[in-house]
Amino acid sequence: MKALPSGTNVTEFAIATNRRYKDRDGNWQDAVDYHNIVVFGRQAETTAQYLNKGSSAFIEGRLQTRSWEKDGQKQYRTEIIADRVQFGPKGSGGGGEAPANNSSAKESNEQPAAPEYPDEEINPEDIPF
Prior knowledge:
The chain has helices at 42-50, 103-107; strands at 2-3, 9-22, 28-40, 57-70, 73-87. It is mainly beta. The protein has a domain at 1-20 and 30-88: CATH 2.40.50.140. The protein has a five-stranded mixed β-sheet with strand order 1-2-3-5-4, covered by helices on one side. A hairpin with a 5-residue loop joins strand 2 (9-22) and strand 3.
């Protein structure tokens, strides 16, 4: 966590999103994307205090791309400016131990199956709303 000259707190961190899908040949593929997150104000303090490496979190916000020059080269960085950070359960990662009464998590270390998405394109006219 850092403070801006105005006194507003800001916390920056990266978060990974995992995705598992079947390719055209029917083989399972894993993909990971990393996102830069920026949180301001009181939520920046809470995030810096309670979010740990490996913890799950729900981030809601807007995308923003900023640019600057470094050694004569224009640099770009796209970030998610978080409006809301919601912390996941403590047992979901490095954030702490699983609750003692959560017997289903102890019995199986498997992750839930990812939904299978159709191979064909989705026609917007087929969506009922």
